[in-house]
Specification:
It is built from 6 helices and no strands. The protein is mainly alpha-helical and 107 residues long.
Length: 107
């Protein structure tokens, strides 16, 4: 679904990313650039903005158990993978079946 750019909505979503500790996330950076330029997205940015709005604000999925597993992971590679999956879920992205199975194996 296409969403018309609204600066107030962009600020609201950026605030949600920052309050979840996701201020360095690529979506937060994109929203920040739109806000700073005070211009609507162009080209591929139109779809990116709409995807962010369609997924909803971050933090609606509880990932505390995944982050706890990342902290306890014996290998840094596993910890990084767990953090990546947690961030994807916090952005309300879906994991593929393969990713879900891999996540379950790591937990």
């Amino acid at each position: 679904m296409h969403h018309d750019f609204d600066i107030a909505t962009a600020k609201e979503f950026l605030s949600a990313y920052e309050s979840e500790g996701m201020g360095a996330d690529r979506n937060a950076g994109f929203l920040r650039s739109l806000i700073l330029s005070n211009r609507p997205p162009r080209g591929g940015g139109i779809g990116w903005y709409s995807d962010i709005i369609d997924r909803g604000k971050p933090g609606t999925t509880d990932v505390s158990h995944i982050l706890a597993a990342a902290d306890a992971a014996p290998r840094e590679e596993d910890a990084a993978t767990l953090r990546d999956f947690a961030n994807r879920l916090r952005r309300n992205e879906r994991l593929s079946e393969r990713q879900d199975a891999f996540l379950a194996g790591l937990l």
